[in-house]
Amino acid sequence: MKTDSIAVYFQDDHTRLEAIYHEFQAVKHTDPARAAACFAEFKAGLERHIVWEEEILFPGFESRTGMRDAGPTAVMRMEHARIKQFLHDIAQKLAQHDVATDAEEAGLQQTLADHNWKEEQILYPAIDDMLPPADRHGVFARMGVATGAAR
Ligand SMILES: [Fe+2]
Ligand SMILES: [Fe+2]
Description:
The chain is mainly alpha-helical. It is 79% helix and 0% strand.
């Protein structure tokens, strides 16, 4: 997929990760080993996505708006901490061959759905509007994604 839009790229990554998560849920009770592998892939992918946001994407927004400790990215950072806690809790149970993770999954899904919606509807479009193309390309370059290149 070729894009130089932050919104398109990051939304696409949400969708890609969601598909891996759904695969985890689909095989959780029938193929625990595959479920654990899927969850590990989902967790690693989402943690990388969060690092991209917190270390590369959000600082550009924060320096341009002067909003760091209060404002949308501060809320997103707090939600990331909750999301990472759910990822950790589920991974720990799966490592002990415990698939009774429905409550943690429900919490994760609710937090993530709300979080992704706010990023996709509000924050990413605002960042696209704010950053000139050269700066957007700089974001992708620092993520290790070639500008507008196929992934
Ligand atoms: Fe996020
Ligand atoms: Fe995101």
